[in-house]
Structure formats: structure tokens, C-alpha cells
Amino acid sequence: MPDCSAPENRQFDFWIGEWAPQNVQGVTVGTSSIQLILKSCIIFENWNTPVSAGKSFNLYDVKDGKWHQTWVDNSGMLLLLEGQFNGKSMVLEGKTIDQAAKETKHRITWTPNADGSVRQLWESTDAKGAWTVAFDGLYKRISSP
């Protein structure tokens, strides 16, 4: 059985907890429950808003030295991300391909703040390939793990 207690496995633990994510205007947009599951090897996200819901599974893979996220939501979106903790933020990247074979790149950055909140910045490429902000949110802690 894998041992998920190495320091690399704990790099994303700052995201664990119960959250009230806010948009840049300071409006709470939903809830997010982030839990450590499966013998502390997986960080599980349960995201809910009045109009959308999604779940992600996040893990550190010792074989390739990267973090991986599988995101699914109620629109049928599947997003596979991978990346690393850069010392101050978790940065994961991936891409989606729509029915017209158009590729969109995604980069999501989670940064823990001194006050215990976490900023999540989700950027995607537009039709010209330029990065645009898809979501800029501040996770305000409701409760700790």
C-alpha cells in the first residue's frame, strides 16, 4: 500500500476545510467542502452553487512527481490537470477539446493567504489563445478540518 505521509503529499493540505468561496466583488457564490479521504491519499472537493456543481479528486503521484486533478461537473465537463506546488502556490494545467475540436487550455492556481483564506485563480485561453480569467475567487473558511 502506498504511504501518503511524505511532505509532497501534504503540499495541498492548505485547501482542506469547509469554505464559502467569494467572487472578486466579495459575494459568496456557493460552498466548497474539501476533505482528505482514502487513507489521506486523496483530496476530495465537493463544489456547489445555485447553478452548478462539481467534484474533483486530487493526488500527488510519486511516480512522476506531479499533482493531478480530475474535475467533473454537472455540465458534463471533464478536466484533467497536472502540475506542482511552486513553494507558494499549487499550479495545475490541462486542456479541454470541444465538439468542434477547439482546444482550450486551463491553468488553475491556488494560493494560501496569511489570514487562512485561499485564492483560486482559474485562467483559460480564448479563441485567439490569450489567457483570460474564468474564475477569480477567495475561499473564506467556514471551518477547519
Write the layout of secondary structure elements.
Blueprint: E1 17-22, E2 31-37, E3 42-48, E4 53-61, E5 66-73, E6 78-85, E7 90-97, E8 103-112, E9 118-125, E10 131-143
Antiparallel strand pairs: 1-2, 1-10, 2-3, 3-4, 4-5, 5-6, 6-7, 7-8, 8-9, 9-10
Characterization of the model:
This protein is mostly beta strands and 145 residues long. The chain contains no helices and ten strands. The chain has a ten-stranded antiparallel beta barrel with strand order 1-2-3-4-5-6-7-8-9-10. β7 and β8 form a beta hairpin. It is globular, with a radius of gyration of 15 Å. 15% of the residues are buried. The model has no long low-confidence stretch (mean pLDDT 94).
Defining key terms:
145 residues; single chain; 0% helix; mainly beta; ten-stranded antiparallel β-barrel
Radius of gyration, in angstroms, nearest whole number:
15 Å
- State which percent range the strand residues make up: over 45%
User: What string gives the helices and strands in order?
Assistant: EEEEEEEEEE
Largest sheet, if any?
10 strands, antiparallel, barrel
* Shape descriptor: globular
Mean pLDDT: 94
SS-based structural class? Answer: mainly beta
Query: Strand arrangement, largest sheet?
Result: 1-2-3-4-5-6-7-8-9-10
Number of strands: 10
Low-confidence stretches: none
Short description:
The chain has 145 residues and is mainly beta. It contains no helices and 10 strands.
